[in-house]
UniProtKB/TrEMBL annotation, chain A:
Chief location category: membrane
Annotated localization: Cell inner membrane
UniProt lineage: Bacteria, Pseudomonadati, Pseudomonadota, Gammaproteobacteria, Oceanospirillales
Protein name: ABC transporter permease
Keyword Cytoplasm: no
InterPro entries, per database record: ABC_transp_permease
Keywords: Cell membrane, Membrane, Transmembrane, Transmembrane helix
From TrEMBL, chain B:
Presence of keyword NADP: no
GO MF entries: transmembrane transporter activity
InterPro entries found in the cross-reference section: ABC_transp_permease
Membrane topology: Multi-pass membrane protein
Protein name: Nucleoside ABC transporter membrane protein
Origin: domain of life: Bacteria
Pfam short name (any one): BPD_transp_2
Keyword Transmembrane helix recorded: yes
The organism of origin for this protein: Marinomonas foliarum
Transmembrane segments: 20-42, 62-80, 87-107, 113-133, 145-164, 197-215, 244-261, 281-308, 320-343
This protein's UniProt keywords: Cell membrane, Membrane, Transmembrane, Transmembrane helix
């Protein structure tokens, strides 16, 4: 394998990993507050279709991303009201959000299937893109990829170095104690869930505005679910999510790589790779029961009712 | 002043009324939606709910769709009762379709009377295998059941697509990704002359009654219920969570596998890439709508089958995209979860503002 091919593969891994990075960053914040939102796939699809429709209608990819963010946020609010206010089961509500989003996105997008738009163009960052090897892998992408880099570092700072991060962690670890010291638990969780929705929206927009760029029914192909596994893989740590996203990126383009190397394996079998890889990774990470219990936010998935104070 | 108060006892009236209320709210939502896109809401409701039951052919088709929905939902009801979040009915159904079809094709034109039973058993076994892998991974490696079962849905789908493009493709099929048609000995008999209703619906209803019996009359069912409501108590009582997980997951996998093989040996008659229009996912909604009670699932499956039929008719007659069905399913579950809030809470009216 020559170095040019390696650069191409790693470049593609970053591009393929970017939607996973966006959505997993959103979900990790949500889970850190103690809320498990299984509606990622539905929010992402809605972001993808609304982003595409807005960009198609206005001719501006930027407005498309904005619309996708708003849509993702609205979707997450449906979830938040049911789970946080009405105490609905988080697993069931998340599934409902995914089923709803899958249907609604196909419904409103049926008119623009097959249409194409002018998505974001790559921008090579001066100087940085001239770095041998890394320059072409990391700094010759479009603006959304750079946004995902920035988001990762901002979140690392906010979560690990600021009071906001402490508050979020406190709510996720022990909502009753957090409530006792005056933190508005439900407000924090609302904000965390909405942040997750916005990020899922951007992630969807990346799929329909950059990655393909077009709208096809169910185009996210399980990425919302893979992102949930990615959060487990990363043990709820921001930095590892970035690493994991690119590793999953490589797994999802592996079929192209193998075909490029001249291996004759059925493309349908190779299409299983990202899902098989997800299962294997989950097994390896979760095998150590003690470790996972230590790392997962302790109140994850549990309903908090401020009326029932212990 | 309207206040929300916690009930001292969960309301048994709301437990029954909540699904009905959710269905009514979903229909209202549908009317608003159809008005918004410029379609007549009355006509839309007629197409969605009345037309599917308007003639005997349509009623037959409703039962054809109800079979796989009910089979999957019955298994899921038991899983969710035991707090096992199996989202993998779709994959288990596809595995059943694949395994059963391979067996049916193996029998070919054989006139053995065992051909059909063995084909069905192959489908059931395949569904069980597809449920067993995530169960094993959960029990042995503590991996998340929700995510592994979802991943196995995708893996099963691509395995099936690979099979119809490769080893199971009809050599005389002009390259279409489909298997050969099964011979009559491996087809499920239909129940009536002029309809496609087949034995699958009988399997489904029998399975619902068996599951109801297990859940409410047997010691195993008692264990499931204790595990679901109070896991520490179940462990204290010495119930084995491992054994229970295996039993419930394999039962659900077997039923989903049977649903899959009943589709290919029933109305379809061959293996095709789109065996299931998302039955395994819809069954999650059916299970919830039926209150995680296997007998409740029968009624819920009727409603869901009507909705599926209505979606097809709405596309043909009114040009409404068929995706509207899964959107309604999501809305229905939202409303159901919201209405369930009032099982444990109630609205109280008071004249003076308190607190």
């Amino acid at each position: 394998m020559d170095s040019d091919l390696i650069v191409q593969i790693l470049f593609a891994a970053v591009k393929t990993g970017t939607p996973l990075l966006f959505i997993a960053l959103g979900e990790v914040i949500c889970e850190k507050s103690g809320v498990l939102n299984l509606g990622q796939e539905g929010m992402m699809l809605m972001g993808a279709v609304v982003g595409f429709l807005a960009a198609y209608g206005t001719g501006s990819a930027g407005l498309g991303v904005l619309a996708a963010m708003i849509m993702g946020c609205i979707m997450s609010l449906i979830f938040a009201v049911l789970v946080l206010h009405l105490g609905a089961n988080q697993v069931a509500t998340g599934l409902a959000l995914t089923i709803f989003g899958t249907g609604l996105s196909a419904f409103i997008g049926s008119g623009v299937v097959g249409q194409t738009i002018q998505g974001f163009q790559p921008i090579a960052i001066p100087l940085l893109s001239d770095i041998p090897f890394l320059g072409r892998i990391l700094f010759s992408h479009d603006i959304l990829v750079y946004t995902s880099f920035a988001m990762t570092f901002i979140l690392m700072f906010v979560i690990y170095k600021t009071r906001i991060g402490l508050t979020l962690t406190a709510v996720g670890e022990n909502p009753h104690a957090a409530n006792a010291i005056g933190i508005k638990v439900l407000r924090v969780r609302y904000l965390a869930v909405m942040f997750g929705g916005v990020m899922a929206g951007i992630s969807g927009a990346y799929m329909s505005l950059v990655y393909t760029p077009m709208w096809v029914e169910n185009m996210t192909a399980g990425r919302g679910w893979i992102a949930l596994a990615l959060v487990v893989f990363a043990s709820w740590r921001i930095g590892r999510i970035m690493l994991g996203a690119y590793l999953f990126g490589i797994a999802s383009i592996m079929h192209l790589v193998l075909q490029g190397l001249g291996w004759s394996i059925s493309p349908n079998l190779l299409a299983m790779l990202p899902y098989v890889a997800t299962v294997i990774v989950m097994v390896i990470i979760s095998a150590d029961k003690f470790k996972e219990k230590l790392l997962a936010p302790r109140s994850l998935g549990k309903t908090f009712d401020p009326r029932q104070m212990a | 002043m309207i206040l929300i108060q916690a009930r001292t006892e969960p309301s048994s009236l709301m437990k029954v009324a909540s699904p009905l209320l959710a269905i009514a709210l979903t229909l209202i939502f549908g009317c608003v939606l159809f008005s918004a896109i410029g379609k007549s809401p009355i006509q839309a409701l007629h197409v969605l709910l009345i037309a599917p039951l308007a003639d005997s052919y349509n009623i037959g088709e409703m039962f054809v769709k109800m079979g796989p929905l009910l089979l999957c939902a019955v298994g899921l009801s038991l899983c969710y009762r035991a707090n096992l979040w199996n989202i993998g009915a779709e994959g288990q159904l596809l595995a059943g379709a694949l395994g059963g079809s391979a067996m049916a094709l193996y029998f070919g034109d054989s006139d053995s009377i065992l051909a059909l039973p063995i084909t069905l058993l192959a489908g059931i076994a395949s569904g069980m295998i597809w449920a067993a892998i995530p169960t094993y991974l959960k029990l042995r490696f503590n991996s998340n059941l929700i995510l592994t079962t979802i991943m196995f849905n995708y893996i099963g789908l691509y395995l099936l697509i690979w099979a119809v493009h490769g080893p199971l493709r009809d050599p005389q099929g002009f390259g279409f990704p489909e298997s050969a048609m099964f011979s009559d000995t491996t087809l499920l008999p239909t129940l009536f002359e002029s309809s496609r209703i087949h034995l699958g619906i009988v399997f489904a209803i029998i399975s619902a009654f068996i599951a109801w019996f297990i859940l409410s009359k047997s010691h195993l069912g008692f264990q499931i219920r204790v595990f679901g409501s109070d896991e520490p108590a179940a462990k204290y009582a010495g119930f084995s969570s491992r054994k229970l997980s295996w039993m419930v997951m394999l039962f659900a996998g077997a039923l989903a596998g049977l649903a899959g093989v009943s589709e290919t040996t029933g109305p379809i008659g061959q293996l095709v890439p789109n065996v299931s229009p998302g039955y395994g996912y819809s069954a999650i909604i059916v299970a919830y709508l039926g209150r995680l009670n296997p007998l409740g699932a029968i009624l819920a499956a009727v409603f869901m089958a009507v909705l599926y039929m209505g979606g097809d008719l709405a596309q043909i007659e009114m040009g409404i995209p068929v995706a509207v069905v899964s959107m309604f399913q999501g809305v229905l579950l939202f409303f159901l979860l919201a209405c369930d809030f009032f099982i444990n809470n109630r609205l109280a009216f008071s004249n003076k503002a308190t607190n």
